[in-house]
Recover the amino acids of this structure.
């Protein structure tokens, strides 16, 4: 992909984040649970990576980027909000710091790790690793919800 086309993906991402706020507000007014935002947004992210994995044209890759951006718009605001809700009283700053640190670490290590995977194996392996990583929020939220239900029953 030529550099100018790759750069336009980030312009699409930025414009969609700004222009998509009314859509985001509409969705979050209909679905008010942060956990559901994570589930729905993560599902959208999975779909975008599957589309990107099979893309062979720029327009398909751009479509994957648009879908990915919508998923990001749902997931990333919900995670700090959920951490704030779940933090013990007086510890919200600490938990917000952990959430932000984990995000920053991912943005720092992710491209390096991805580059190593692509150099050593190939891009398809990287996509499978990413798809596996995107399954983690489903598992952790399910385990958390199960523990909450068990405590309520006791």
């Amino acid at each position: 992909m030529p550099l100018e086309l790759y750069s336009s993906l980030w312009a699409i991402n930025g414009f969609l984040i700004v222009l998509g706020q009314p859509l985001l507000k509409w969705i979050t007014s209909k679905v008010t649970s942060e956990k559901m935002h994570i589930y729905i947004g993560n599902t959208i992210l999975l779909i975008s990576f599957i589309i990107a994995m099979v893309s062979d044209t720029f327009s398909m890759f751009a479509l994957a980027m648009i879908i990915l951006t919508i998923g990001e718009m749902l997931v990333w605001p919900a995670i700090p909000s959920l951490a704030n809700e779940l933090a013990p009283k007086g510890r919200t700053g600490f938990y917000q710091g952990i959430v932000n640190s984990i995000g920053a670490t991912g943005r720092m290590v992710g491209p390096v790790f991805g580059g190593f995977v692509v150099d050593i194996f190939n891009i398809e392996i990287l996509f499978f690793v990413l798809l596996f990583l995107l399954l983690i929020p489903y598992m952790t939220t399910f385990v958390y919800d199960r523990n909450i239900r068990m405590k309520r029953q006791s």
